[in-house]
Design brief:
Blueprint (H helix, E strand, L loop, with lengths): L4 E2 H7 L11 E6 L3 E8 L18 H19 L2 H4 L2 E13 L7 E13 L2 E10 L2 E14 L3
Antiparallel strand pairs: 1-2, 2-3, 3-5, 4-7, 5-6, 6-7
């Protein structure tokens, strides 16, 4: 497995599609341990027009969603494809979420995520979000892998 996934490779792993597929790349992948997700926040990002007009800010819930997508892609890329077939990853809890500075358009949001532990289908993760080396947000979350409805 590569230590980098582009958007098309992420699409092969996740069910998310535009506009809700937030990740552009997953880099520095250490199998089932950690990775850095890249989200290019642009003036054309779907939330910009309405959140907030003339003062666009990436909603904190979308930063948390990007954390979750990054964790799902990290996990899916590290386990046997047959094991992950017909599965979805759902957030169960979000803890210790802190938003330190607003994320505005025309930036590269880097999400450093780490798998803290796993027990069966339940995984716990931690992440920190940065723009130009400045910490913007952080959180811990738990997710579970479930069977897709047929």
């Amino acid at each position: 497995m590569s230590d980098k996934l582009n958007k098309n490779q992420i699409k092969e792993l996740l069910p998310h599609r535009e506009p809700m597929l937030l990740l552009d790349e997953l880099i520095n992948i250490k199998k089932l341990k950690s990775a850095t997700a890249i989200v290019n926040v642009t003036k054309n990002s779907f939330f910009v027009q309405g959140h907030f007009p003339n003062e666009p800010v990436m909603p904190g819930v979308l930063i948390v969603e990007a954390f979750g997508q990054a964790a799902a892609a990290l996990t899916a890329s590290g386990i046997d494809k047959r094991t992950y077939e017909n599965k979805l990853v759902f957030l169960m809890t979000v803890e210790k979420a802190r938003f330190r500075s607003p994320v505005i358009p025309n930036c590269r949001l880097e999400l450093n995520i780490e798998a803290i532990r796993s027990h069966g289908r339940v995984w716990k993760y931690a992440g920190e979000a940065f723009v130009n080396g400045k910490k913007m947000a952080e959180a811990q979350w738990t997710a579970t892998i479930v069977d897709r409805k047929k």
